[in-house]
Backbone:
C-alpha cells in the first residue's frame, strides 16, 4: 500500500463567508471615488460618513478611523506605491486599481497606524474578499505579508535613493510628493534641506479645523465657548477646533453666522480690507468669489463700514454657494454669475478688489492630498493665461487710488510673483503696497512687499497675496 493511500482523508474546510467591515468598506469606496471620478476626498467622505451614521453602522470612533484611513492613504500614496512595487512581481501599472487601493489601505494600516500587524493584514484580506473576490484576496495577503516584514523607516532605507545622490527624488519618496512638486516648492521656499523637509512633512499632517466668526454676526469669544475650542494664531476672527471637533455641532456655524475657513484665507481678506486707500471706501468686489469663504468675511467687514460688496463667480453652481455663504450678511451685497475676464460692470467702479484666482492648489495639499497626484507641470501653462487675464481685469475694475489684491492658494512662483511681475510691466500706473504691516504679529512673511504664508511656519495653507494700488 502506498504511503499516499495510508493517509487519512481530511474533509475540505467549509467555505467561510467574508466578514464585512463597514469602516474599511467605506474607506475603500471613498478611494475608488477619488480614483474613478476624480473626486476630492473632502467632498466624497462627509456624505458617506453621514449615511453610515444614519444607518447606525458608525460611531465617532469608526468615523475617525475611516477618515484616517482615507486621508492617510492618499497623503502617503507615493511612499506606499514605492514599497508595494518592491513587493510585487510586476510593474505597478499592471496591478488593477481596486487591488492597489486595498493594498494601499493595508500598507497604511501596517506602516502608518498603531493597528497590530496581524489585525491590519487580516482586516485587509477580509476587505479584499468582499470587494475583489477570494482569488485576488490571496494576492493581497501575499503582498501585505511582505510589507509587514519591516517598518516604515526600514522600507524607506530600501526604496528611497540616498539624499546625497538625488535630493529631490529622496524627498519625493520619503515625504510622498511628486518630484516636480518637491522641486517647485523648494524653489519657492528657498533655503536648505531643513525648511523643505518641514514643509513636506506639514503637507502630510492632518490640518486643524478653523472657524471664522463673521463680524457683526458672531464673535471669536462666542466660538471659544465651544468645547475644545482655542483661539486662532493670527486672525482676530479665527477659532480652532481640537481634533475630532465637528463644525456642524457649532450653533453659529449652523446658523451661518460663522463658517469654516482656513486662517490663511482669513488673513488675505483682512489684509485687503486694511490696505490704505486714497479716496472713498464704498464699493468692494470679490471677482472670483466661489465657494464664498472670503466673500462672506469681506461682506461682513464691508458692512461694518457701510460699504457694498459685489461677489462675482463664473460658475452658476459656485455662485449659489457664495449666495448661501453671504445669506444674512448685515450690509448691502449682490451675488452674480459672471466671467471675471469679461465683466458686466464698468471700469474704475470699485475701491477694493480681490481676485483669488484659480490655480494648481499646491498650497492646500494638507486638505486635498489627492491634488498632488493629479496635477502636472503643464497645468501651470493652462492656468497662466487665466490668472493674468483676471489680474488685468481687476486692475481695470478698480478706480485710481483703489487697491487690488491678487491671491492664490499656491506658492509656485509661476502662479505668484511671475504673474504679478508680468502684468505690472504692462501697467506702469500701478504700485505694489507692502502688505506685511497689514498683518501685525504674523512672523516670517518673506522679503515683501508681497506675502507668502506656509503650513510649517504659520499653520495655514500656503496662501500668496500681492496688494497693488492703481495710481493713474
Residues:
Amino acid at each position: 500500500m502506498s504511503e499516499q493511500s495510508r493517509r487519512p482523508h481530511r474533509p475540505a474546510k467549509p467555505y467561510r463567508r467574508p466578514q464585512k467591515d463597514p469602516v474599511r468598506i467605506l474607506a475603500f469606496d471613498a478611494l475608488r471615488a477619488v480614483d474613478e471620478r476624480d473626486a476630492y476626498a473632502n467632498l466624497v467622505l462627509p456624505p458617506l460618513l453621514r449615511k453610515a451614521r444614519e444607518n447606525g453602522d458608525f460611531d465617532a470612533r469608526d468615523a475617525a478611523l475611516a477618515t484616517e484611513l482615507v486621508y492617510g492613504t492618499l497623503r502617503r500614496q507615493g511612499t506606499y506605491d514605492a514599497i508595494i512595487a518592491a513587493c510585487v512581481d510586476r510593474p505597478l501599472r499592471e496591478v488593477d486599481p481596486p487591488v492597489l487601493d486595498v493594498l494601499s489601505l493595508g500598507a497604511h494600516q501596517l506602516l502608518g497606524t498603531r493597528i497590530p500587524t496581524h489585525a491590519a493584514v487580516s482586516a485587509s484580506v477580509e476587505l479584499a474578499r468582499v470587494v475583489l473576490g477570494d482569488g485576488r484576496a490571496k494576492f493581497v495577503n501575499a503582498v501585505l505579508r511582505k510589507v509587514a516584514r519591516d517598518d516604515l523607516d526600514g522600507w524607506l532605507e530600501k526604496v528611497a535613493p540616498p539624499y546625497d545622490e538625488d535630493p529631490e527624488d529622496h524627498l519625493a519618496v520619503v515625504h510622498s510628493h511628486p518630484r516636480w512638486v518637491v522641486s517647485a516648492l523648494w524653489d519657492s521656499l528657498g533655503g536648505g534641506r531643513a525648511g523643505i523637509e518641514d514643509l513636506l512633512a506639514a503637507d502630510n499632517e492632518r490640518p486643524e479645523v478653523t472657524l471664522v466668526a463673521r463680524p457683526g454676526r458672531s464673535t471669536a469669544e462666542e466660538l471659544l465657548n465651544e468645547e475644545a475650542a482655542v483661539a486662532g494664531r493670527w486672525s482676530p476672527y479665527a477659532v480652532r477646533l481640537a481634533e475630532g471637533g465637528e463644525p456642524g455641532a457649532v450653533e453659529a456655524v449652523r446658523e451661518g453666522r460663522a463658517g469654516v475657513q482656513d486662517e490663511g484665507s482669513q488673513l488675505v481678506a483682512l489684509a485687503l480690507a486694511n490696505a490704505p486707500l486714497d479716496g472713498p471706501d464704498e464699493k468692494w468686489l470679490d471677482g472670483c468669489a466661489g465657494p464664498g469663504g472670503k466673500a462672506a468675511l469681506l461682506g461682513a467687514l464691508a458692512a461694518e463700514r457701510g460699504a457694498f460688496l459685489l461677489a462675482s463667480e463664473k460658475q452658476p453652481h459656485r455662485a449659489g454657494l457664495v449666495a448661501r455663504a453671504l445669506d444674512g450678511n448685515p450690509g448691502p451685497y449682490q451675488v452674480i454669475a459672471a466671467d471675471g475676464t469679461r465683466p458686466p460692470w464698468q471700469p474704475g467702479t470699485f475701491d477694493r478688489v480681490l481676485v483669488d484666482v484659480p490655480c494648481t492648489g499646491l498650497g492646500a495639499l494638507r486638505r486635498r492630498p489627492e491634488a498632488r497626484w493629479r496635477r502636472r507641470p503643464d497645468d501651470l501653462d493652462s492656468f497662466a493665461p487665466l490668472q493674468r487675464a483676471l489680474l488685468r481685469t481687476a486692475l481695470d475694475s478698480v478706480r485710481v487710488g483703489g487697491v487690488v489684491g491678487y491671491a492664490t492658494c499656491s506658492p509656485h512662483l509661476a502662479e505668484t510673483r511671475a504673474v504679478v511681475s508680468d502684468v505690472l510691466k504692462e501697467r506702469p500706473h500701478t504700485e505694489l503696497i507692502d502688505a506685511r504691516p497689514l498683518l501685525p504679529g504674523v512672523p516670517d512673511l518673506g522679503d515683501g512687499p508681497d506675502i507668502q504664508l506656509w503650513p510649517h511656519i504659520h499653520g495655514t495653507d500656503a496662501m500668496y497675496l500681492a496688494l497693488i494700488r492703481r495710481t493713474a
About this structure: The chain has a mean pLDDT of 94. The longest helix spans residues 378-397.
